[in-house]
């Protein structure tokens, strides 16, 4: 894999990490830290950040972390309806934006990386 692709994976992972960190702190920013559904942001945000950090550390082999982050992006996007905070415009838009960003970067990250292994059969003996 070229250095440009490794750099692109790392960049996508850094952005995902920052998005996860932002999701984690967003309940405090939006004044919702006392609400039960804040746990969703804390748990999912920490998960996104942890998986992105894992991918940053091993961009060629940790491709599965991008797939999981893609799924967490879908979850984050759907969470305003699941937890019923669509009326809180700030949190609602935040979840949609973070979910879309994490999904798109996860989709990109999962499409780039080591896709096949080279199999070399053992030499034939005469």
Tell me what you see in this structure:
- This protein has about 130 residues and is mainly α.
- It has one domain.
- Helix content is about 70%, strand content about 0%.
- The protein is built from 4 helices and no strands.
- The protein has helices spanning about 5-30, 40-55, 65-85, 90-110.
- Helix 1 (about 5-30) runs antiparallel to helix 2 (about 40-55), helix 1 packs antiparallel against helix 4 (about 90-110) and helix 2 runs antiparallel to helix 3.
- The longest helix is centred in the first third of the chain and has 27 residues, at about 5-30.
- The relative contact order is 0.18.
- The model has no long low-confidence stretch (mean pLDDT about 90).
Please compute the radius of gyration using only Cα atoms. 18 Å
General shape: elongated
Order of helical and strand elements: HHHH
Note the total helix count: 4
Ranges where pLDDT stays below 50 over 5 or more residues in a row are: none
Helix content: over 70%
Question: How many separate structural domains?
Answer: 1
Structural class: mainly alpha
Count of DSSP E strands? 0
Kindly state the mean pLDDT as a whole number? 90
The termini sit apart by 37 Å
Q: Determine the strand fraction and express it as a percent band.
A: under 5%
- Largest sheet entry: none
Q: What would the keywords be for this entry?
A:
126 residues, mainly alpha
Q: Mind sketching the topology for me?
A:
Blueprint: H1 3-29, H2 38-57, H3 63-83, H4 89-111
Helix pairs in contact: 1-2, 1-4, 2-3, 3-4
In short:
72% of the residues lie in helices and 0% in strands. It has 126 residues and is an all-alpha fold.
């Amino acid at each position: 894999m070229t250095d440009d692709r490794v750099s692109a994976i790392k960049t996508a992972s850094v952005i995902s990490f920052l998005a996860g960190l932002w999701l984690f702190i967003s309940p405090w920013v939006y004044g919702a830290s006392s609400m039960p559904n804040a746990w969703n942001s804390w748990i999912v945000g920490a998960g996104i950040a942890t998986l992105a950090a894992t991918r940053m550390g091993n961009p060629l082999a940790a491709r599965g972390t991008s797939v999981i982050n893609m799924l967490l992006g879908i979850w984050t996007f759907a969470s305003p309806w699941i937890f019923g905070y669509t009326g809180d415009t700030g949190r609602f838009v935040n979840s949609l934006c973070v979910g879309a960003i994490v999904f798109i970067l996860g989709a990109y990250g999962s499409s780039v990386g080591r896709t096949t292994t080279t199999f070399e059969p053992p030499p034939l003996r005469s």
